[in-house]
User: Which sequence fits this backbone?
């Protein structure tokens, strides 16, 4: 029993020594000319505001928006983001209209999917069951559409906030 404990303690010590040596070596080295402080010296950084941030801006896979199982439902394209820091008032208003139009098209897309699923389920009463994978995929497409609607609205809200704070030309109070 003691032999097994001693072997285990020896293995732990053998694994810990290289890590301790690396930490000791790293703390004794002076900063090099390419240190982070020197790279950032004299270069201004743009402010990063985390309030109301749109976290996930990755595009969805192409299959999510395409017609699936011949349902003839195609997702609308998300509106282009507007940079509120440099946009004109007309661009902000156009972006708001595009976001509103996208929300309406997204609702129609979701309705199309729901109608397709309802028709397929009504056919299942006649003897041909609905495949569960079809229901899962169609439900996922609806959820992605709803999430994209929220993303588009959050992006537009961020653009409006940036425009009001920096790009509107309003005098500071």
Assistant:
């Amino acid at each position: 029993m003691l032999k097994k404990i001693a072997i285990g303690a020896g293995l732990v010590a053998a694994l810990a020594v290289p890590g301790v040596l690396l930490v000791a070596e790293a703390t004794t080295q002076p900063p090099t000319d390419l240190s982070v402080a020197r790279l950032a010296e004299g270069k201004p950084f743009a402010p990063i505001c985390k309030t109301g941030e749109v976290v996930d801006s990755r595009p969805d896979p192409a299959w999510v928006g395409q017609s699936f199982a011949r349902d003839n439902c195609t997702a609308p394209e998300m509106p282009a983001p507007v940079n509120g820091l440099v946009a004109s008032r007309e661009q902000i208003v156009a972006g708001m209209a595009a976001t509103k139009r996208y929300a309406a098209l997204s609702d129609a897309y979701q309705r199309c999917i729901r109608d397709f699923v309802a028709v397929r389920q009504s056919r299942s009463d006649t003897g041909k069951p609905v495949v569960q994978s079809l229901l899962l995929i169609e439900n996922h497409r609806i959820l992605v559409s709803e999430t994209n609607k929220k993303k588009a609205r959050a992006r537009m809200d961020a653009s409006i906030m940036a425009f009001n704070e920096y790009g509107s030309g309003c005098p500071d109070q």
About this structure: DSSP finds five helices and no strands in the chain. The radius of gyration is 28 Å. Helices lie at 2-28, 36-40, 62-65, 89-124, 132-167.
